[in-house]
Amino acid sequence: MRAPDETTIKAGQTLLSVQNVSLSFGGVKAIRDVSFDIKKGEIRAIIGPNGAGKTSMLNVINGFYHPQEGEITFKGVKRKKMRPHDAATGGIARTFQNVALFRSMTTLDNIMAGRTLRMNKNFFWQLLRYGPAEREEIEHRRKVEEIIDFLEIQHIRRVPVGRLPYGLQKRVELGRALAMEPELLLLDEPMAGMNLEEKEDMCRYVIDVNNHYGTTIALIEHDMGVVMDLANRVVVLDYGQKIADGTPDEVKSNQAVIDAYLGVAH
Amino acid sequence: MFYREAGQFKTNYRADMAVFPISQDRIGIAIILIVAFGVIPFTASDFMLHAIMIPFLIFSLATIGLNILTGYTGLLSLGTGAFMGVGAYSCYKLATNFPEVHIIIWIVVSGFFSAAVGILFGLPSLRIKGFYLAVATLAAQFFLSWCFIRIPWLVNYNVSNAIEVQRRSLFGIPVTGPEAQPVTRYLIVLSIVVVMTWLASNLVRGRIGRMWMAVRDMDIAAELMGIRLLNTKLLAFAVSSFYCGVAGAMLVFLYYGSAEATAFSINQSFAILSMVIIGGLGSLVGSFMGAALIFTLPILLPQLMGSLGLPIQSATAEHITFMVVGALIVFFLIVEPHGLARLWQIAKQKLRVWPYPY
User: For residues B48 and B39, is the Cβ–Cβ distance under 8 A?
Assistant: First the structure.
């Protein structure tokens, strides 16, 4: 699954890089001079204590916040300001910390909505819903059903997502993001509030997405066990600053990280 | 027992995505259409056609229009009456300036004028939501009402300051004006409403409908999925106003016969909004139900009381009607805040499992 683009980036090359990004809200500095990169095909974790600026970082990456300083290079294109729409067309999809599904729509419609950008039959075909518009709808329905099969949510296809339990909602949200066939998938705490079994399921889906579709994944997660198992590389933020970057083992033994999580004696 | 989808298997997505996937529904809608086109025109009295069926259908169309905006896209509007007025006045201008083009074409075309005005007054919707947007559309309502009253050009400098519908014919049969028979007008209104309802159902089930609902349910997520908020909202305003405009034009040309600006006042907006809410937000079937309850009931109730032979004066009957309709609205809202459409769904669900509780 890959977005139709001119510049194809091979596995292992830098897909997205963040250079010296600073973001502040009034006097509050959420992110201070952070740089890191995400390589194609890897699972990159962003961790850090509460309020470290992880979610802000994701919001910067997909264009929801505009950093005051710094640049973001995505697929070789450098930009200072990225609009959410451009990020979406460029192939960045995300899920949210507090599930942001379309609550009154069914699972099927939610995931179909994820394919909006890939559907292009104009208003008048839509009005008639005949010929091209109908064929397009069927073709995308097929893709959506693949995702539904992949995530094993066939039984809730026609249920409005507002009625689903939390764990399933998270799964549907992952499905909606996958429907965009993203190149870079941002997951904001995909395992938050889940029990052990649900977490294990979710981990398996994340790994499967990475293996099966080759999607690059950047995830924020608080469960260190999950992070250490899933991630190829980890970047650690604290008070908006990057304090460590490397493989899980390197990060685990880093003194600054231990201090940030456990505190230091003064 | 009779309403059950058991045994109706779908082997392709096309069948699965049909408007009425269950065959009983298809039979039901076919019966309704046959009755509406084939039975009612020949059996119903002129009173029934003129005073009940024609306005019911027209208000249903206006309700669908507002439902697209408020129910599907989640943008509250109090300007429905004005948008209907734009349709009516532009239809009048077009019909009098270009009498050689047929009136039915102008009725549909006047929707585009309404859509343009709708887009203009929809522009604030990117910045403001909910009650604040309602106030912004209220401004549209008052401004346009003022235009209808104060700009005599709109009514071709008539002394009466009202739209006066002239006689126009289709194949030699008068369709507008005083000579037009209720049956003819009914059939025209019915055809337009059926076609436009079908088109609306296509829209709301497809990509555009999903975009509208996505914006309604969670606009941030919609934006991050690449849905342009302003375009989507303006499209909703345009389509909604188009429907309201056509309804307004039909209201004057195929029902009232002549109309002053008061026909498109704020009261009209509130009436349509209450039809949307009672019928069910985000439901096309609900739009018809809401229009039926709010519009038709006050007319049918006195008739009913009359036919029962109750010895009451007409003034008393009117008061009783108000009380009964008011009580019914409160009753329905308490029983099911999501409107009649939801009650209908629940009823269907119960029928599906009948005679077992679940």
Answer: no
> What are the start-end ranges of the H helices in B123-181?
130-150
* Interstrand relation of A77-79 and A92-94 (parallel, antiparallel or unpaired): unpaired
Residues A60-76: tens digit of each pLDDT: 998 888 899 888 888 88
Residues B178 and B172: their CA atoms lie apart, in Å, by 15
**E strand or H helix at A187:** strand A184-188
Domain ranges of chain A: 1-91+182-266, 102-180
Interchain CB contact of A93 with B (< 8 Å): yes
Three-point CA angle A150, A153, A159, nearest 5°: 145
pLDDT digit string, tens, across residues B189-242: 999 999 999 999 999 999 999 999 999 999 889 998 889 999 999 999 999 999
Rounded to whole angstroms, how far apart are CA atoms B148 and B83? 11
Closest CA to B68 of B206, B203, B217: B203
CATH class of the structural domain A1-91+182-266: alpha beta
Report the alpha-carbon distance of residue B217 to residue A172 in Å, rounded.
Answer: 15
Edge-to-edge order in the sheet of strand A43-47: A92-94, A184-188, A216-220, A43-47, A233-238, A241-246
Tokens of A120: 């292009």
ipTM score of complex = 0.90
Separation of alpha carbons A46 and A57, rounded Å: 9
Q: Which residues of B332-350 are buried (b: 16+ CB within 10 A; e: fewer)?
A: beeebebbbbbbbbeeeee
CB contact under 8 A, A127 and B203: yes
CB–CB contact A104 B213 (8 Å): yes
Which whole-number Å values give the CA distances from B271 to A61, A165, A233, B63, B99, in the listed order? 47, 38, 61, 9, 33
B171 touches chain A (CB under 8 A): no
Q: Does A141 touch chain B (CB under 8 A)?
A: yes
* Residue in B with minimal Cα distance to A95: B221
Task: Please state, in angstroms and rounded to a whole number, the distance separating the CA atoms of residues B40 and B281.
Answer: 29
Domains and CATH numbers, chain B: 20-265 (1.10.3470)
Whole-angstrom Cα Rg for chain A: 19
In chain A, residues with a C-beta closer than 8 Å to the C-beta of B14 are 134, 138
**CB proximity B229 to A under 8 Å:** no
